[in-house]
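Project standup — Tuesday

K.O.: blocked on the structure for the chain from last sprint. Re-posting the sequence here as requested.
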Amino acid sequence: MSGGPDGAAGVSPAGAYEVRVAEHAGDREACFAVRKDVFVGEQGVPEDIEYDAYDPGALHVLAVTEDGVPLGTGRLLQGEAAAAKVGGDPAVGSLGRLAVTREARGLGVGAALVRAIEAAARARGLAAVDLHAQTHALGFYERLGYVAYGPEFADAGMPHRAMRKAL
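H.V.: unblocked you, prediction finished:
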């Protein structure tokens, strides 16, 4: 299991898992596979909009079991990549594409991923993290300290709200 500024560890019914920065091609492929299962497969997001020009430069995190089964993923954008999503403030990062496999939901994986992204944002000197939450997930993010702001809006045909947490 890993720990430290970019990692977290936990236990699932399948055994221990770790959350780590996806630095290798295999890890990134696992991140994209989780996103495809959750967003494209379960939620019907068109594949051509799920993957975007921000993916190559983003920091991706991955939760995996000890035997390598991917459980969840998320990404952090900063700088110019995040500017349009966070109102142009260079001190604010953008958390996005948070996805947890159906089998791993309710086990703390999503919260561990968010904490790892926040740790990475702090390590990069960011003062806050913004995200666009599907409205059904507002309570999850509120429990992690995020505050909704602005009106509801549609993204990929689903209702969302912008949220922010100071680090």
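K.O.: great, moving the ticket to review. DSSP finds five helices and eight strands in the chain. Strands lie at 8-12, 15-21, 59-65, 70-77, 92-100, 128-134, 147-155, 158-166.
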